[in-house]
Amino acid sequence: MGPWATQQLGDMGADVIKIEPTGGDVMRFLNPNRHASMGPSYLNMNRNKRSVALDLKTPRGKEILRQLARVCDVLVSNVRPQAMRRLGLDYEALRGENERLVYCGCYGYSEDGPYAGRAAIDDTIQAASGLAWLQGYCSDEPRYVNATIVDKIVGLYVAQAIAMALYAREKTGRGQFIEVPMFETMTAFLLPEHLCGLTFEPPLGPAGYQRLLNPFRKPFRTKDGHIAVVPYNDPQWARFFELAGRPEMTRDPKYASVLARSNHFRELYEFIEKVIATRTTAEWTEAFERAELPFANVNSFEALLEDPHLRATGFWKALEHPTEGALRMPDITLKFSDTPGAIRRHAPNLGEHTEEVLREFGIEK
Predict the structure, then answer these.
(1) What average pLDDT does this structure show over 38-61?
(2) What angle do CA 171, 174, 178 make, to 5 degrees?
(3) Which of 184, 194, 294, 315 is deepest in the core (most CB within 10 A)?
(4) What band does 13 get if pLDDT is binned at 50, 70 and 90?
(5) Which residues form the domain of 265?
(6) 364, pLDDT greater than 90
(7) CATH number at residue 38
(8) CA 203 to chain CA centroid, nearest Å
(9) Residues 236 and 176 in one domain
(10) Considering its fold, how many domains does the chain have in total?
(11) Where are the alpha helices (DSSP H) in the chain?
C-alpha cells in the first residue's frame, strides 16, 4: 500500500522520503535481481523517492523521524498502529509539533472494531473481504487473484485520501489523521455491483452480480487462440447476433432488453462461446472492429512489450539505473496537460539519501 501510494504522489512531483529499517524494505529481497537488495517489485514501486535508513527502535532514530515530521506535509505509515504508539510516533504524539501534518495510517483493520491490530497482508484481505470467495465462485474452492491487488487498490485510496486532506488543509490551515483500513476499504470496493439482492431489506435475493459470476464469462477460445468480447447494450447485442448469423435472437423476448438478458447471462455467454469457436482470432478481430464491439486480444506480459498501441503511446520506458543497469518500466499513465508527471529519480539503494536528507533539513547525523 504505502510504496504504491507514495510512488503515485512522487510521480506527480511530491518529494517522497522513504524511511526504511536499516535492514531494508522486505520487498527489496525478491528474485530475480542483479543485486540482492534491488529486486524487481521494489524497483517498480519505489521510483521518485529518496531512501533514509533509520532504526526507529533507538532514541536517535525516533528523534530524527520526529524532526522530519515537524517540517513535512504528510507522513504515511503502513505499520500497525499499536507499534507506532509503542514507538511514540503515532499521530497524537506528533500532531502537537506540526499542526499542519497530514498523517495517514494504512493497515489491515480499523481501530474501531474487534480486529484492530490484527496482522494483515494482501492474501488475507482478499480472503476477509470476499474477493477470494468471488474468485472461486465457479470452482470448488476460494481462490486468490494472481496479483497484489489489495495492496495496489488500497494504495490508490491512500493517495486519493492524502490529496483530499491536503486540499482540506488549504481551506482550514489544519492537518488531520486519516485511517485507511485494508479490510473495510476492499470490502467497500467490491460491494457496489456484488451486494446485489442484499442491498434491500429484507433481501430480494443473494449477493453476487450474476453476469460476473457466470462460468462462461471468460476469454473465449477461437480456432487458433483466445479473444475477449463483451456485447453489453442493446445495439451491441444486435450487432453480435448479426455476426453470429442469428439476427432473429434480437427479437426474442428473453434477449430484447437489458432487464430480460439479465435473467439469461449463462445461456447467452454459452452461446458466445460456441460462436467464437467457429473463426480464427484474426477473423474475429476484423469483425469486431467493423461492428464496434468491446473486444480485446488475450495478451501475455511478453506480448505487451510489443503491443502496437503501447509502443505508439510510449508506455514502456527504458531507464539506466546507476547500480542496476538497463531497466524497463511502465510510464506514468496519468496525463496532466499543465503539470505532467515525470520519472525524476531511480528507485534508491538502501539509505542512499540518508546523509543528504539530514543535511538538507539541518538534522545532525
Answers:
(1) 98
(2) 105
(3) 184
(4) very high
(5) 220-297
(6) no
(7) 3.40.50.10540
(8) 31
(9) no
(10) 2
(11) 2-11, 40-45, 59-71, 81-87, 91-94, 122-129, 131-135, 149-172, 182-194, 234-243, 258-261, 265-276, 281-291, 301-304, 308-313, 354-360
